[in-house]
Amino acid sequence: QVQLVESGGGLVQPGGSLRLSCAASGSIFSINAMGWYRRAPGKQRDLVADISSADNPDYADSVKDRFTISRDKAKNTVYLQMNSLKPEDTAVYYCYARIESVKATYWGQGTQVTVSS
Predict the structure, then answer these.
(1) By C-alpha distance, which of 66, 64, 62, 81 is closest to 22?
(2) 95 vs 110: CA distance, rounded Å
(3) Does position 105 have pLDDT exceeding 90, yes or no?
(4) For the chain, how far is it from start to end, CA to CA, in angstroms?
(5) What pLDDT is attached to residue 73?
(6) Cβ(48)–Cβ(80) under 8 Å?
(7) Which of 25, 9, 33, 34 is nearest to 89 (CA)?
(8) What is the mean pLDDT of the chain?
(9) For the segment 12-58, what is each residue's pLDDT rounded down to a tens digit?
(10) Across-strand partners of 91?
């Protein structure tokens, strides 16, 4: 079992920045990939970025060059630095952790990000 607690969401003006954090606890040594999905109002949940256990990041085209995912293994935390935010980035952002050995995916509770003037 893995528990994930997110923080860092909020209201920001277009062009602004936010940093999301996701702290993992529990069976952290079994975690392979971690990352972030988001769900905008009326839309499906989409992958934003993820990072492998080897610290290889991957990004959705819509956020490349604006968002950066990183992982602090000592703190069992993954971060999403979001710059140059746009109104279309408004969504609930969900952290996830994947354990391949048991084919399990764990989710955080979600944090709201609103980009508006």
Answers:
(1) 81
(2) 7
(3) yes
(4) 40
(5) 86
(6) yes
(7) 9
(8) 94
(9) 999 999 999 999 998 778 888 999 999 998 999 999 999 998 999 99
(10) 113
Query: DSSP letters of the chain?
Result: -EEEEEE--EEE-TT--EEEEEEEEESGGG---EEEEEE-TTS-EEEEEEE-TT--EEE-TTTTTTEEEEEETTTTEEEEEE-S--GGG-EEEEEEEEEGGGTEEEE---EEEEE--
Q: 111 is written with which tokens?
A: 């944090």
The secondary structure of 16-34 as a DSSP string is --EEEEEEEEESGGG---E
**Amino acid identity, residue 116?**
S
- Burial category of 36 from C-beta neighbours within 10 Å (exposed 0-12, middle 13-18, buried 19 and up): buried
Residue 17 exposed, middle or buried by CB count within 10 Å (0-12, 13-18, 19+): exposed
Tokens of 15: 């062009």
